[in-house]
Amino acid sequence: MNSHAIAAGHAERLATVDALLPEMPALEPAEGAVSLFATEGDSAAAGLSVRTEAGPDSVDSPWRALVEHRLEARLTGPRPEAALDALLTRWDEHLKAVAPPGDVETAATVVRPSRDSPGSAELLRRGFAPVLVIAVRPADRLAVTGPPATPGVHIRPAEADDLKTAVGLELELQRYDAQFGSVTLREGAEEAITADLSKQLGRENPTLWIAELYGRALGMVRVQFPDETSWIGDRVAADRVGYLSSLAVAEPARSSGVGSALAAHAHQVFDECGTEAVLLHHALANPRSTPFWYAQGYRPLWTYWQRRPAVP
Prior knowledge:
Aminopeptidase, 2 domains, 11 strands
């Protein structure tokens, strides 16, 4: 069975799993990538392993291992879990040849549709854990009158004087998420965050808002509009995709309504500009963010299964 036949069977199978998944074509060989195939009885799998690297000072480095081997897979047949297991055997053979054993800055990652559950047990047996999720919220969930007001909470666009507050909130968020494996704390994080957030302040079309609780700045939310989301927009079956970059609430203000007010404000902004779906990443094991985001209308779309080190 060739890669196009496997991709066709994969697409037919996923069409019954999740209507918000985008089309997933056959995996085409690419420079630097390794193509893998496996069969198990009447089931088959095709995979593409891609190695990427990030410098320790890069903007992306807190959210990943410095070296990542990512497997994209297509599964077809009556036993997709068996096909995935066979594919993972081929991949492990490849990883042992290219990845240093025990290196925690080298990760093996498989990103799978969250509702495509066959193969989950096989991943767990091989030491992978579901670490991160891309969650989706279809648009038009709010009334046209806007979100209800939260007593004591005022939301406004961030200004230049808010930079120190915003950096502190983002650092607090990263330290908290680092407990769950979705963030790696890096040296120079404060400088990198400061440079990144500085670009968001004073924009004509605001992308960063501050929440004040009785006059004290205690939360923020950052967004990307559809013209900035080409890097992730192909992960959902929608044309105009927004991305909620981060939402942070200071510890003293948690459970006060600040987070819900910020989320409702962001969704109203997205709805007003005609966004069809909003995506965000969150740590799956985070006991605060997981129930919070799903209460705001999100649900899992893609799950990142990770083994770090890539070769134990």
